[in-house]
Amino acid sequence: MKKKVLVRAPILTRSGYGEHGRFVVRALRQAEETLDIYIIPTPWGKCGWIYEDDEERQWIDTMIKKTALYQNQTQGKPNYDISVQVTIPNEWENLAPVNIGVTAGIETNKVAPLWIEKANHMDKIITISNHSKQTFLDTVYDAVNNQTGQKVQLRCVKDIEVVHYPVKQFDDVDLKLKLDTDFNFLTVAQWGPRKNLENTIKWFIEEFIDIPEVGLVVKTFQGGNSILDRHYTTKLFNNLLSKYKERKCKVYLLHGDMSDKEMHSLYKHPKIKALVSLTHGEGFGLPLFEAAYSGLPVMAPEWSGHIDFLFAPKKNKKAGNEKMKAHFAKIDYDVGPVPDHAVWENVIEKGSMWCYPQQGSYKMRLREVYKEHGRFKKQAKDLQKWIHKNFTKEQQYKKFKDTLEEYVNDSENWLNEIEDIIKKYE
């Protein structure tokens, strides 16, 4: 008999968690002969929803309708065998006899107590980076048992597996970008506290204020990709630029929905020379990953989730071996407390720490990448080859398969089905 597997995720949103949810169902879908898949879509903040009307979207819609019908037929008491919940841990619930929590984790050095409580109710946790996994393992709180008065420690005691995103490939499209400058940096980030976008723009302008040949393309939004959001984001953008009336460098605002194909074409645009990020922290850093496997040089602090894919082996001729080396322009940083305005109850804890990229280091790296772009482009190409070899769909689907193996009856047959992923995505 087929196992009923429920996937609850913001699967229709254009967000990191939306991409994560789609990754999960793409893997499970290959085993439909042995798995009965159900999907509950959830929102993700103010993020917009995907609009592509392709075969995958039609299949997802069919699964959503099937789930709604099943819930109605069972009067809101469905019997699922396994739930896979893709979201932040404080939203995890016991929805089935076996519950798998899938999360991007955290950008700071500490997870909330509620996250640990919720994690310990899961059968297994799947996260996206070693930074997120280690933060779960390192976070410990002193507590008191209300019934016995005994002092105890609250820590995560469940297995945590790391499964990365795979490389994706698309044909290039003509974006018809009107860029007056031939050498442009790119930043892709939401306009919010964690992404540090204002400093990214301000410090860029200060470094290249007298150089008209250099530009910065800012792909951003504040709370979505609507027309209202465009007006609000444009106002923020123009207010910031108005402080630098004497600037000669160019700063471009790019707003609105872009498909995966369009985003990948942006990373490969001949006038886009490097991706810059002054992020305070990443669970994984999907735009950095996409830029890196597209062969675009990356500038970022050496902190949090993106470290998993920005290092690659390099031969040590003297020692005769290989050692993992940074293949990106490292921006120096300090680690300090998260500011009060960025604290998010039960998610980003007061007193937790994240990184603060240094202004001077950022400006030096900007100038260095501009003047020595050939060196950084070669480094980026080497990194691209390593990522394409080690972050394939075959490898990531296999890792995902292995995390669920023990929870599926008739696992041998199911695993044979899931292996078809490798062939179908080659």
Give the strand tally. Answer: 18
Principal-axis shape: globular
Main sheet record: 6 strands, parallel
The first-to-last residue Cα distance is 30 Å
Core attributes:
alpha/beta, six-stranded parallel beta sheet, 14 helices
Explain this structure to me?
This protein has 14 helices and 18 strands. It is α/β, with parallel strands linked by helices. The chain has a six-stranded parallel sheet. Strands 11-10-9-12-13-16 form a six-stranded parallel sheet, with helices on both faces. Strands 6-7 form a two-stranded antiparallel ribbon. Helix 5 links the parallel strand 9 (183-188) and strand 10 (214-219). Helix 5 packs across helix 10 and helix 10 packs across helix 11 (373-390). It is globular and about 65 Å long. The model has no long low-confidence stretch (mean pLDDT 92).
